[in-house]
Specification:
GO terms for molecular function: transmembrane transporter activity. 75% of the residues lie in helices and 0% in strands. It is mostly helical and 311 residues long. Helix 4 crosses helix 5 and helix 4 packs parallel to helix 6.
Length: 311
Amino acid sequence: MAASVVVGSRDVGWSDVVAALGGSSDTIGQAAATKRIPRTLLAVVVGAALGLSGAVMQGVTRNPLADPGVLGINMGASLAVVVGIAWFGLFSATAIVWTAIVGAAGAAVFVYAVGSLGRGGATPLKLALAGTATSAALVSFITAIALPRGDIAESVQSWEIGGVGGATFDAIGTVLPFLLVGFAVSLLSARSLNSLALGDELAAGLGERVVLARGTAALGSVLLCGAATAVAGPIGFVGLVVPHLCRLLVGVDHRWLLPFSAIAGGCLLTASDIVGRIVARPSELDVGIVTALIGAPFFISIVRRQKVREL
């Protein structure tokens, strides 16, 4: 977080950071620090939300490929926001967050329903295929809605990439209550997810209400994903890689895995934002691009070492 405030297309001294914290923006350095402080906070909370959301999704579905991006939940939230803006004139920040959460929930239910069809129920492979197909379809719908609308097309296209560059304290304040509820619900689901990992029959035998436990955990994940997408766009890959990394560090106990996934997600997104500012000076790469560039080779290396089998 400290590096995120001082490093960028223009380096900022600590005296400027201190002055910015006091409300001053008289110099260029102080103005830069004033913009980077909310940007850093947004990167941390969005990264934590996506990392935790991915870990919960993988626990709920018992699917190592589960992720808000892979399952199409990010795109469901994005489509709902674009439809709300283009057709219903939704520009209120709170309305956009609620719309994104509804869209994320709808996409999650649809993908799980499609992935549950046929023999064997919702297998990891069927869920991944259903999510990928749904995500591709939703991207097409978003493009079809936004392109004819010249007044919103450019902003929608930029937002779809995913980034935290336009962060403000007002935007963080709007989305923070939704994220806090999502964090609380998800973290309180840790024991239930441990039981679900043993299988539905054994979890029920241990006294777990399987449907309620799975629904509650999924609700927390959808809240996190929808709120994060509303404020930063559909950033992918964080929720896929982070839980796998954290399992290698702390094991499969969700009481440890979930908080570590939140911390690691915040670290990954903040570090990716810093890299995006440095590699393309004086311009910058959106953090959604950088997370894919950083995360994909790392995830491939995990698969090549065959450690995913142990997860």
